[in-house]
Sequence to fold (119 residues):
Amino acid sequence: MTAVQVHEPLRRLSPLVCHVQVADGAICLRITGSVSSGDDATSVVDELTEACGLCCGMVLLDVTRCDIDSELLIAMIRDAALRATSSRCQVRVLVDEPDVVTALSQAGIARAELPAGTR
Fold:
């Protein structure tokens, strides 16, 4: 069994954790664990809405270590955007799952590129 095969089931069973990093003009909200509809999704939307309200630069939503459905991710980003109506920030999503990348592009949601050589 490879490390990837071991990592995937653990990622799906991991509880939701939101990590916040703040820099000059930017906030990074890193989501780890599994996000399903309900309380987990509400927590992420609340965190993203608050970050958008506090930041006038860029909010980076990092879901590279998160097990999340692309439709749920899009709905959460749109919900946060509606709730943070006075926000002047730009939201970018950092993701490495090809199907989620495609869904975000089709929905018109901006992405941040992973640095070369990272997984």
Remarks:
- The helical segments are 3-13, 39-54, 70-83, 98-107.
- Confidence is low (pLDDT under 50) at residues 1-11.
- The chain has one domain: 3-112.
- The domain at 3-112 is CATH 3.30.750.24 (Transcription Regulator spoIIAA).
